[in-house]
What we know:
It is built from eight helices and no strands. It has helices spanning 2-37, 55-60, 76-87, 97-107, 113-129, 144-157, 161-171, 176-187. The longest helix is centred in the N-terminal third of the chain and has 36 residues, at 2-37.
Amino acid sequence: MExxxxxxxxxxxxxxxxxxxxxxxxxxxxxxxxxxxxxxKGKIFIEAGYIHIFLSRFLQNVNLKDWEIKASFLLAPIAxxxxxxxxxxxxPYPLVPGDILTFWxxxxxxxxxxxxxxxxxxxxxxxxLISSEELEPTPTIPFPHLKQEFFxxxxxxxxxYKDCAYLYEIIKFLPxxxxxxxxxxxxxxxxx
Length: 192
């Protein structure tokens, strides 16, 4: 259990550092974009992943008075449809535990320590389940990574802090395929 608690602490420290890095990067990016757009008119598209959700707020704060700022997650319609099938409710993006922690730290909101520890514990399980390889789309599964994230979200919602501690000790050195087999057996959730 001591190793698990150290790992949970490390996840929280990483998420804190990541939140600071993302916020700084987004502020600097907003300033650079504002400088670039200073004497221009028209429309511009700025690509950013959903972890950069606050970039649009930073853009609104850097004196872009002639520009309308609108944030869109291009996969939202697909994500909502997938989430409805998998989770029973539409969500525009998966919001996995690590992202939730990072968002909390970015917003500097007071966090319930038990919820914070639970999210960090779930990150450890998430990291063993999520594919680090590029998943190839198929006609029946055109967005495999997104689908996998929503399935993992379902699994993680069933796990308590104690469940994560127990599973972590078993799966931390297992290959991903074995981890999936064990998790599916324990939770009764079939990914495929």
